[in-house]
Amino acid sequence: MPFCEDCAKYWAPAAMAVDGSCPTCGRVLEQPKVQAVARGGERPSLRELAGEDAKAPWHFKLLMVALAVYLGWRLLDLFGIV
Ligand SMILES: [Zn+2]
What we know:
Radius of gyration: 22 Å
Number of strands: 2
Bound molecules: zinc ion
């Protein structure tokens, strides 16, 4: 999250100006990723915007596996197989 040292305030990316500057003092805090990619002409994908190392964390995958096992067990229990 970009921080403006002059205003001593954190800014959400959506709250900043379109060019990545502070809405109060105008200091450039961050180069907007959307514009940088969009300047190439094509629409940016979510993967491009998120960056290279953006992927689901291991505990989320573990939770999904546990959910699938639990729902599978409940389904078998529902039909009286187990
Ligand atoms: Zn500022």
